[in-house]
Amino acid sequence: MMARRCSTGLLALCVCAATFSYISASPEVCTNSLLPGAKGDQGEVGEEGDQGKLGKNGPPGFPGVPGEKGLRGQMGHTGKMGPIGDKGDKGDTGLDGPSGLKGKPGTTCDCGRYRKVVGQLDVNTGKLRNAVKFMKNVILGLKETEERYYLLVKEPKRFREASMNCKLRGGALAMPKTTNTNRLMADYVSQAGLTRVYIGVQAQSKDTNGTSMYVYADSSPLQGFAGWSQEEELNSRLSPTTNSSCVELLSTGTWGHVECEATMFFICEFPKSRRRGGGTVGGGRGTPTAASS
């Protein structure tokens, strides 16, 4: 039994030795690394993946070629009416018209008996004219020029209320457009024992350029005359604030800026009635009412 085991172990030892010698004699070397196999067939296309994050903006490209000129657009809306322009020069005298037809001969009139009546009418007309002048200047307290009446209203009101009050009377806030008119109104204020009143001058609302200007109550611009003092003249060139965009007339004849919400007396002006051929010319309304003045 013992001998049998020894022969079996010897046989196994011989097999191992022969195998080792065969491996040693082989030109190939056995290593632990795995060699890649042959390239396989192309697989199927996978599903589309999710959209990636947006990348950074690239540099701006070169300017493109200018496009063709477009068609002319439609006419826009009509803009606001601009300020009234200066009065134009007087035109040349026209040619004389043709002579009219000869009239019928008049009748002989003995006017001697009417001279006394006409003379008495002239006297009565003069008295009536003086009475009307007395009523206007003394009773109503009006001042007048060749074209307008001026009434000092002694009711303290804000600028907007004063303007409306003059309109209800048939006139407008007084607008001193000449030196003589401004002086007459200033003396009117001084004789009444006052120091300042509202007049029809106010800053116009700002336009698209952000600038503003002072205009009269009839929306006409200040042209030819303005009663600003040197300091007020400088302030009037600046953009006025909403609260100080109204104007007052001092008894000295100068203009000043004032808040529109201030209450003070004011002067109204009224156009005179002009009659030509029996009709009223220029839309005059006659002597203004002096109620509550």
From TrEMBL:
The keyword Calcium applies. Pfam families: Collagen, Lectin_C. Residues 1-25 form the signal peptide. Residues 35-102 are annotated as: Disordered. Keywords: Calcium, Collagen, Lectin, Signal. Residues 145-269 form the C-type lectin domain. One of its GO terms (cellular component) is extracellular space. SUPFAM superfamilies: C-type lectin-like. Gene3D superfamilies: Mannose-Binding Protein A, subunit A. The keyword Signal applies. GO terms for molecular function: carbohydrate binding. InterPro entries: C-type_lectin-like (IPR001304), C-type_lectin-like/link_sf (IPR016186), Ca-dependent_lectin (IPR051077), Collagen (IPR008160), CTDL_fold (IPR016187). This is Collectin subfamily member 10. The lineage of its organism: Eukaryota, Metazoa, Chordata, Craniata, Vertebrata. The gene is COLEC10.
